[in-house]
Amino acid sequence: MTDATAPTLLGFDVYLIATALSAVAALATIMAVYAAISIRDPMARRVKALNDRREQLKAGITASTSKRRAKIVQKNETADRIRNLLQSLKVLQEEQVKAAQGKLMQAGIRSKEWAVAVIFGRMVLPIVLGGPVLYWVYGTDAFADWSPLKAYGLVAGALIGSYKAPDLYLKNRIQKRSEAIRKGLPDALDLLVICAEAGLTVDAAFHRVARELGRAYPELGEEFSLTAIELGFLTDRRQAFENLSMRVDLEAVKGVVTTMIQTEKYGTPLASALRVLSAEFRNERMMRAEEKAARLPAIMTVPLILFILPVLFIVILGPAACSINDQLLNR
Question: Distance of CA 283 to CAs 176, 183, 191, 290, Å?
Answer without folding.
Answer: 21, 12, 17, 10
